[in-house]
Amino acid sequence: MPEDKHTLSKSTYVRGMQCLKSLYLHKNRPFLRDRISAEQLAKFRRGHDVGALSHELFPGGINCAPGHPSQYQKAVEKTRKLLDEKCPVIYEAAFEYDGVLIFLDILTFSEGIWNAYEVKSSLRVSEVFITDAALQYYVLKGSGLEISDFFLVHMNGGYIRQGEIVPREMFVFSKVTEEVQRRLEITKENISLANEALTLKKSPPIEPGNQCFAPYPCDFMGHCWKNLSENSIYRIGGITKERRLRLMSSISDDISQTEPSLLSAEEKMLIEVHQRGTTHVDPELRNSLQNIDSAAFASLLLIKPAVPLFEGTKPFQTIAAGISLFSEKTGNHTFIAPPGSDPRGYISDFLRNHVQPGETLIVSSADEAEVCKSLVSDAAPGCAILDLGSALKTGKIYKKGIDTEYDFLQNFSSFLPGYKPSKNSGAVMAGVNYLNAKADDEAKVLTESQKYLEDTNLGVRKLFEFLVSG
Ligand code: SF4
Predict the structure, then answer these.
(1) 347-350: which pairs have CB atoms within 8 A and are 24 or more residues apart?
(2) Cα–Cα distance for residue pair 28/31, rounded to 1 Å
(3) How confident is the model at residue 167 (pLDDT cuts 50, 70, 90)?
(4) Ligand 1 centre from 180 Cα, in Å?
């Protein structure tokens, strides 16, 4: 069997295009990597469901996916054999060229032409998907396979599930043949650059910047950003990340060196609060909180399945699967729908039973506020909704340690010294774990979900009390 000689794959190539230092560290210093973030884990798991369903677009194909990295070469040979036999549909077709190994999601042969399909668990085509498709096209062509058309297959945001999923309606085909053909030369150059970076003795001298966040949050942030100065403008977490990065690159990284005329009045105020170690609460926000007659506090367990699980829902629709509620009138209650069931009716009934008309429902994120809005209009008419999480994210509430990028629980811990939520206890992770609960870990997942809901609910209440008493 020929030896596997590849140095790059789709994911390492895309990583290198984002930052060559990230590629170098990934290959040579993997132990420096941060723990996988909840968002990335969610995307990975989402991709799994969507990939399996996409096979129904072209049923009856032969799968070349290797069971283990040691079988990569076997997968390439199996694909080659299927090409020779003009197999009509191949899943995970494996190709290797110029030191790059790729697995194409679906390859079809019909009426003498080959077409390529790459499936994305996303509502739209993005630049990084075209970069990825261009690499695949380069490898397919270099391997001697002439592709007639290359399609990116993604989710149709307007699709509404009625009965069984209809893959032909749930997926959209975007033809990117011309774009990937135009990028052949630049792809070749990019591969050379990536390979050069990998031969270096030390990681390339690349400073932290915008590239650390897009198209994907880099998993070496903990390593590269650890020496960020205490005086860095990046530490002013009440300013949006984009603005902080712009200030860092165009003005100065050091707060004390930044020309005040280049900052807005609000930014100057946040810097002052940060340096003095005090707390800022927007007076209008405080006033509206103090005028609430009857408050109830809600935390929601939100799920966002890529493939619509329930009748009448769309891809990536946000749905409440659990709720913890503390009402001054009805007390403390928590409910989580049995995994696998449609939770919408349960949650509406819960609100109908526990929320009183005229109460203001206080939540911790814009997503929760959005979902509550549609639920209470039916189940508890006359309720107002107030989102404290967004106030933390927009600098209306600010204290050193808060960051617009953090989850509510992480930010809330700034107000409660000693409170340390675990790294994977955020809203996204709680939803992902619930969605992926299996019979053997369901009890554990439900216990953790309940803890997440009750911790968040307590956080919202404590924050509210602090803000009102201020
Ligand atoms: S954290 Fe930023 S600079 Fe460091 S490897 Fe990642 S992208 Fe590159």
Answers:
(1) 347/320, 347/321, 347/322, 347/323, 347/375, 348/375, 348/378, 348/379, 349/379, 350/323, 350/325
(2) 9
(3) very high
(4) 27
Q: ∠ CA(114), CA(57), CA(117), 5° rounding?
A: 40
Residue nearest to atom 7 of ligand 1 (CA): 212
Mean pLDDT of 180-206: 96
**Residues in CB range of 306: below 8 A, 6 or more apart:** 46, 49, 50, 121, 155, 315, 316
Which tokens sit at 236? Answer: 């002013």
Q: How far away, in angstroms, is 413 Cα from ligand 1 center?
A: 27
Domain boundaries, given as residue ranges, for the chain: 8-197, 228-277, 284-469
DSSP string, 138-182: HHHHHTT--EEEEEEEEE-TT----SS--HHHHEEEEE-HHHHHH
- Considering the segment(s) 284-469 as one domain, its CATH architecture is 2-Layer Sandwich (3.30)
Closest ligand 1 atom number to CA of residue 24: 5
Class at the top of the CATH hierarchy for domain 8-197: alpha beta
Q: Helix, strand, coil proportions of the chain in percent (round to 5)?
A: 45, 20, 35
pTM, whole model, 2 decimals?
A: 0.87
Pocket test for ligand 1, best of 22, 29, 248 (most atoms within 8 A of CB): 22
Tokens 């349960």 found at: 346
Examine the pLDDT at 89 and tell me if it is beyond 90: yes
pLDDT band at 246 (very low <50, low <70, confident <90, very high): confident
The two tokens of residue 320 are 């409440």
Residue pLDDT, tens place only, 323-365: 999 988 888 999 999 998 999 999 999 988 888 888 899 999 9
Instruction: Kindly tell me if the per-residue pLDDT of 134 is higher than 90.
Output: yes
Identify the pLDDT of residue 4. 59
